Amino acid sequence: MAKRRSALKLVEPQSITRLDLGCGKNKKEGYTGVDRRSFPGVDVICDLTERWPWEDESVAEVHMSHAMEHFTGPQRVKVVNEMHRVMQKEAKAYVITPYWASNRAYGDFTHQWPPVSEMWFYYLSKKWRDENAPDNDIQWNPEGYSCNFECTWGYTLHPEFQSKNQERQTFAIQFYKDAVFDISATWVRK
Hints:
The protein is of the alpha/beta class. It has helices at residues 73-86, 118-122, 126-132, 159-162, 166-175; strands spanning 18-21, 32-35, 44-45, 59-65, 87-98, 149-157, 180-189.
């Protein structure tokens, strides 16, 4: 009786692509560091306002800390559209920026206008744009959004408010300058 060869093939597991966009000198461990400059730890030099070198739906996770505020409003649209293009469905992006009512948003002269605020996150949802701001969508505006993210966010509070109750924190967020340092958002790609 002849011996049969196994039809099984060993398949190399695909590597999971996680991007740390605008990482500078502080690349997050386990991520591919991406920046426009060649700092130590940067793996890919890339202008994020141009087409990115990753295939459609090839990225499992994105981290972007203190980089989005360095782009102008129209450049931010390009960045989030590219982010959406390369992210897998249901993948998450973690985006941290200085809060608009914090001195941290204004101290660095390379920060662009307008500062990032919670309102911007609504525009990243296709459903919200269709209902409230259709002229911001690529369907009606060639420079518009083509992305579709579900966004949630929270705040990094000044130490003075971290131990306060929820009511006091909410009041401070709404009415006190510098009560919040950063806004931390999670975007889920739809």
